[in-house]
Design a protein that fits this description.
Order of helices and strands: EEEHHEHEEEHEEHEHEEH
CATH architecture of the largest domain: 3-Layer(aba) Sandwich
Radius of gyration: 21 Å
Number of domains: 2
Length: 241
């Protein structure tokens, strides 16, 4: 009899974020509905009371207000229970002094997922890495509930949080200005202009007739985008009362 292997599926970039309801350290959530109009970073970690995960939660918590200025909320998950989450986060606040951070209080939701329902829904379980722990997955979800980026790290490697922050800035800049961002882009760097739609436009670009645009060839043109202009679009505006 032929063996049938289970295929672990996961949502892809451009898909609607799979919906779920869950218990968290901050109460019940209905995801992604509760975050409509906001960007969200949904991320998983292998287990509570582990060192790499502790370093990551301290870092995320210390950057929470930076992300909120980008209209971005954080939501964590592991397959541990609620009381384990609460005890671990209390230990982080009361006992851990790491990398210049101490008395760090994690106030973003941490999902209880003992059943592994959410971890399976998002493909956070990678059997060849671990069968009972989620890997370090990162899903960036936009205000319309669409998955815009996915990053996966193995159990042994802590995430680069500067890159996650840069990624949010780049995605929001692309949306706000209709551009793309080159490798290692940061606010204030040149951005990439979408490829010309006609030979005439391409010719004008190559002849330098389109303002401050610089073309390396017909398919690769950049232009300056003022840092302050970028940041003014990215910083979340206070809600109207």
């Amino acid at each position: 009899m032929e063996n049938i292997q289970t295929v672990n599926t996961m949502p892809r970039i451009g898909d609607k974020a799979p919906a779920f309801e869950a218990v968290t350290t901050q109460g019940n959530i209905n995801f992604p509905q509760d975050y409509a109009g906001k960007w969200v970073i949904l991320f998983s970690h292998p287990a509570d009371f582990t060192p790499v995960c502790t370093s990551e939660f301290i870092t995320f918590a210390s950057m929470q207000e930076q992300f909120r200025l980008l209209n971005t909320e954080l939501v964590g998950l592991s397959v541990d229970g609620l009381y384990s989450h609460i005890a671990w986060l209390r230990t982080i606040k009361e006992k851990i002094d790491w990398n210049g951070h101490k008395n760090i209080e994690v106030t973003f939701p941490l999902i209880e997922d003992i059943s592994m329902k959410v971890a399976n829904l998002y493909g956070m379980l990678q059997p060849n890495e671990a069968t009972t722990k989620a890997v370090r997955a990162v899903f960036v979800i936009d205000p319309k509930g669409v998955i815009r980026a996915i990053i996966y790290y193995p159990l042994s490697t802590g995430r680069n949080f500067d890159e996650i922050y840069r990624l949010i800035q780049a995605l929001q800049t692309a949306d706000a200005f209709g551009v793309a961002t080159p490798a290692d882009w940061r606010p204030g760097d040149d951005v990439i202009v979408p490829t010309a739609g006609s030979c005439g436009v391409a010719k004008n670009r190559m002849m330098g007739k389109e303002g401050d645009m610089h073309c390396y060839d017909w398919f690769f043109c950049t232009k300056k985008l003022d840092k302050e202009a970028v940041l003014s679009k990215l910083v979340a505006k206070p809600a109207k009362k």
